[in-house]
Amino acid sequence: CYGERQKQWNNNNKKTKKVNDRRHSLKKHYGITETEFRTMIDQQNGLCAICKQEKTMCVDHCLSRPVGRG
Prior knowledge:
Elements: H1 2-12, H2 14-30, H3 34-43
């Protein structure tokens, strides 16, 4: 059964699945690639674009449009 094989693969490849899920989420929700995300973080010197503090980085976005704002 495909579902069981998928669950087994997910359990055996947790790191790969996490990376793939992250890439998919960035592209689906914000229309950017992992490389574009990393470039954005580098341009911000690793700081939050809003509060200028070093935090876990995420994409600031407009709620009415799924577009990243930096």
